[in-house]
């Protein structure tokens, strides 16, 4: 994957997150202020999930994801997740970012859900990518 393509992907993901945060609409209540329908939804916590990973020490689950000619999905998704975290923290410092994994080791699905739920995540971004043997397919 070229650096230019990776940059476009990260910028696109960051733009989506910024759009969600900026376009949270406030409901106007006909009954006046203080009504529960008067509150607005704001994204406070984003969970960033880098899909797949290496086998944890001592065994465990192993899900490397797609394999390309020079990279694996587990490595690409972690790199994208870290860059996305950095970009969101830079652009929106008031939003809390929680990563499901920051190392090369795989995290079970239940643990990913537990991380999201225990941190009261408002948005869950799961990053995955594919590999095709035929490079002419776009």
Characterize the biggest β-sheet.
3 strands, parallel
> How big a fraction of the residues is strand?
5-15%
Question: Could you give the order of the helices and strands?
Answer: HEHEHE
Number of domains: 1
Tell me, what is the CATH class?
Alpha Beta
- Low-confidence runs: none
Classify the fold: give the CATH topology: Aminopeptidase
**Strand arrangement across the biggest beta sheet:** 2-1-3
Structural class: alpha/beta
Which descriptor suits the 3D outline?
A: globular
First-last Cα distance: 13 Å
Task: Give a count of the beta strands, DSSP E runs of length 2 or more.
Answer: 3
CATH architecture: 3-Layer(aba) Sandwich
Helix proportion: 25-40%
CATH superfamily: Zn-dependent exopeptidases
Please give a structural write-up.
- By secondary structure, the protein is α/β, with parallel strands linked by helices.
- α2 links the parallel β1 (45-50) and β2 (96-99).
- The protein has 3 helices and 3 strands, in the order αβαβαβ.
- The two termini are 13 Å apart.
- The model has no long low-confidence stretch (mean pLDDT 78).
- It has a single domain, classed as Aminopeptidase (3-Layer(aba) Sandwich).
- It has helices at residues 3-22, 73-91, 109-118; strands at residues 45-50, 96-99, 123-127.
- The chain has a 3-stranded parallel beta sheet, sandwiched between helices.
- Helix content is 36%, strand content 11%.
- α1 (3-22) crosses α2 (73-91).
Secondary-structure topology with pairs:
Elements: H1 3-22, E1 45-50, H2 73-91, E2 96-99, H3 109-118, E3 123-127
């Amino acid at each position: 994957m070229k650096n230019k393509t990776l940059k476009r992907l990260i910028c696109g993901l960051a733009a989506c997150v910024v759009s969600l945060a900026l376009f949270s609409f406030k409901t106007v209540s006909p009954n006046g202020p203080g009504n529960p329908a008067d509150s607005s939804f704001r994204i406070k916590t984003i969970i960033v999930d880098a899909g797949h990973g290496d086998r944890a020490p001592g065994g465990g689950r192993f899900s490397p994801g797609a394999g390309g000619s020079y990279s694996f999905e587990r490595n690409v998704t972690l790199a994208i997740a870290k860059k996305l975290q950095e970009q969101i923290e830079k652009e929106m410092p008031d939003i809390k970012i929680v990563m499901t994994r920051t190392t090369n080791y795989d995290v079970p699905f239940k643990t990913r859900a537990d991380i999201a739920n225990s941190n009261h995540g408002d948005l869950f971004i799961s990053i995955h990518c594919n590999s095709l043997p035929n490079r002419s397919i776009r």
